[in-house]
Amino acid sequence: MEEAVVFAKLNQLQEDLTVRFSLEDEIVKLPRDLKVKQELLDKINKEYIEEHDKSEAARDELKSLRIQYEDSVHARENSEKQMELINTQREFEALEKEIKDAASKEQSLLKQVHAKEKQVNDFSENLTEKEQLMLLQKNEVDAESSKIEALLAEKRAQLSALDAKCLGYIGADISEDLFNKFSNIVKNKKGKGIVPIHGLVCQGCHIVLPIQFVNDVRSEKQIDFCPYCSRILYYEDVEGAEEQFKKHIDDADIEEGSLSDFVDSSEFDDLL
To answer: Which of 15, 79, 139, 222 is the most buried (most CB within 10 A)?
Structure first.
């Protein structure tokens, strides 16, 4: 297996998979944007209905107040007409009080009528504003819906083509098992499924790897995965990396030698 060829294909597959996963995310997110606008429209509709119900209740109250006001006016006028018919001081005082009470009630009802008329007008203005806002939001939702449907159709077509292209990588160099595993890595690692080793350090998770494992990666005899972050690894010879690698080997040799000096295996001969 030509490692250079496989890595070249994997790198290209990684680019295609990144675009593919990005398209999948966009396809999921696009309806969410429309959902937010639709929720706003629903909220405006609900507020309009509530405002309309309050407006209708205020109109009914205004109608009732106007009837009460007209009745109080008629009552006062009738009492005033009776003034011409009274004969005693006592009747005069009683009727005078009746007229004053009727006039007071009339003024109170008139104030209530004016206040309720203002409330009804305010409701009417608010409803007009909400109707305009509702219409604007509905037009925006309709336009956005058409736009999103067109975009979704376009992106689904692109995704279908990318799916076919990505599956086309499966063959002699990239098995189906490697394809599936690599696809999951690219998706879970935000588009980075292949990373280099510098010295002994994986540049994906930045963890120091065992020397023998790094030697296996450097030999390029097979595809190796980082035991910590699962990414595919290759050795990259950057400035200082080789010195770092040799230093780790020397340190390991020193530790092994020190252990040999400290323990004499012949000491255990009697135990064997």
So the answer is: 79
* Residue whose pair of structure tokens reads 């939001």 in the numeric block: 137
pTM: 0.58
Residue 246 domain boundaries: 193-263
**Phi, psi dihedral angles at 202 (to 5 degrees):** -70, 130
Tokens of 247: 């230093």
Q: Which two tokens stand for residue 54?
A: 């309050």
How far is the CA of 247 from the CAs of 104, 238, 241, in angstroms? 105, 15, 10
Position 268 pLDDT exceeds 50: no
Within a domain: 7: no
CA distances for 40 relative to 62, 136, 224, 230, angstroms: 32, 11, 51, 44
Whether residue 46 is contained in a domain is answered as yes
Kindly state the tokens that stand for 131. Answer: 């109707």
Residue 246 has pLDDT above 80, yes or no: no
With beta carbons less than 8 A apart as the criterion, state whether 77 and 22 touch.
no
| Angle in degrees, CA 64, 65, 70, rounded to 5 | 100
Classify residue 35 by burial, with Cβ atoms within 10 Å: 0-12, 13-18, 19+: exposed
Q: How high is the pLDDT of residue 66? A: 95
Cβ–Cβ < 8 Å for 102, 83:
no
Residue 191 φ/ψ region, left for φ over 0, alpha for ψ in the -120 to 50 degree band, beta for the rest: left
The H or E element spanning position 224 is: strand 224-225
